[in-house]
């Protein structure tokens, strides 16, 4: 039988059973759409996560305090005061895969300008912070090493803070604000970075010299965290190992002891999130594939019923000279068109 005639016969047969054909096709359509949707969602989520992390700088290294572990429970505050400026200097001088490093000290107070106020967290850091955090100056300037050494009362504001303190859109550079009881001069603004997928606002930031926060606001001799930048994204793993080794030596902790700090890289976090998303995507695709399999089984059942119902048609075609392969080809074409 010619292909042209076969297609015509198959098409006419499907038109005679429109509802059955549509319902059968619907199962396959839903199955395929589910698989495509789940794969697309998984890939899109991975891209979004990568973009969010790259906004912070993928070669970012962070050293944070860890509370004392007692019977598996983190308790006490002794370890929270162990990190000092000498740790920062040791990393700066001895870590070959680190290019820039900054101490970080945070303080919470009301930031006030005129009749407007904002409950903010001030990040005290050194002149390398902007490069490490992948932040850009929008207006004004960054603070200098001299301002850092003299604990100058200057600050840089993020866009969210600016919108709250200066709702009329005026330029905040040069304006005086008050953080708690301390007056400060705004010397610059950070370019907008937006929010991440969890809702954290990268623009909700107030930056000042770490000496200003450490000495003038908190009156402490320790720091809360260390941030550093690896030479390259690929060198992040080596940078983490170097930093961990240096910190163990500085804190006089044996390699098999319990460290009072934690070193992590943004690359590690990104890889972990990518792995989680890959597993989740595979799980979702597997679930979607079930609907595709069910659709295939539906076609098989429909075709089985179709063959049973059309025994007279098959017998008539056989009596008119149709061969088994012609009849088989017809039903195969029908199932192929449906799927």
From TrEMBL:
InterPro entries: ABC3_permease_C, MacB_PCD, Macrolide_Exporter_MacB. It comes from the Bacteria. Keywords: ATP-binding, Cell membrane, Hydrolase, Membrane, Nucleotide-binding, Transmembrane, Transmembrane helix. One of its GO terms (molecular function) is transmembrane transporter activity. It is found in: Cell membrane. Residues 286-339 form the ABC3 transporter permease C-terminal domain. It is an enzyme of class 3 (hydrolase). Residues 22-244 form the MacB-like periplasmic core domain. GO terms for cellular component: plasma membrane. The keyword Nucleus does not apply. Its EC number is 3.6.3.-. The keyword Cell cycle does not apply. It is a multi-pass membrane protein. The chain crosses the membrane at residues 21-42, 276-307. PANTHER family: ABC TRANSPORTER PERMEASE YTRF (PTHR30572:SF4), MEMBRANE COMPONENT OF TRANSPORTER-RELATED (PTHR30572). Belongs to the ABC-4 integral membrane protein family. This is Macrolide export ATP-binding/permease protein MacB. It comes from Candidatus Ordinivivax streblomastigis.
């Amino acid at each position: 039988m010619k292909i042209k005639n076969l297609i015509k016969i198959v098409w006419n047969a499907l038109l005679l059973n429109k509802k059955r054909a549509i319902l059968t096709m619907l199962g396959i359509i839903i199955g395929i759409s589910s698989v495509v949707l789940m794969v697309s969602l998984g890939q899109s989520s991975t891209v979004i996560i990568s973009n969010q992390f790259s906004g912070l700088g993928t070669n970012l290294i962070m050293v944070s305090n860890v509370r004392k572990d007692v019977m598996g429970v983190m308790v006490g505050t002794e370890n929270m005061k162990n990190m000092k400026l000498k740790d920062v200097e040791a990393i700066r001088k001895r870590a070959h895969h680190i290019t820039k490093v900054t101490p970080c000290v945070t303080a919470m107070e009301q930031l006030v300008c005129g009749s407007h106020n904002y409950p903010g967290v001030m990040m005290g850091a050194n002149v390398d912070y902007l490069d490490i955090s992948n932040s850009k100056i929008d207006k004004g300037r960054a603070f200098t090493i001299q301002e850092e050494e003299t604990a100058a009362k200057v600050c840089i504001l993020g866009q969210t803070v600016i919108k709250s303190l200066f709702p009329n859109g005026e330029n905040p550079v040069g304006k005086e604000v008050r953080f708690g009881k301390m007056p400060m001069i705004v010397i610059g603004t950070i370019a907008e970075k937006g929010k991440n997928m969890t809702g954290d606002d990268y623009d909700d930031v107030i930056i000042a010299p770490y000496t200003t926060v450490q000495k003038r606001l908190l009156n402490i001799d320790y720091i809360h965290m260390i941030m550093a930048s690896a030479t390259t994204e690929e060198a992040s793993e080596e940078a983490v190992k170097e930093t961990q080794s240096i910190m163990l030596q500085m804190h006089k902790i044996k390699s098999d002891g319990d460290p009072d700090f934690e070193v992590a890289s943004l690359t590690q976090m990104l890889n972990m999130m990518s792995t989680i998303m890959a597993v989740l995507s595979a799980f979702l695709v597997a679930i979607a594939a079930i609907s595709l399999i069910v659709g295939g089984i539906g076609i098989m059942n429909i075709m089985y019923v179709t063959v049973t119902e059309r025994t007279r048609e098959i017998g008539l075609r056989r009596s008119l000279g149709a061969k088994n392969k012609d009849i088989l080809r017809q039903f195969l074409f029908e199932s192929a068109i449906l799927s």
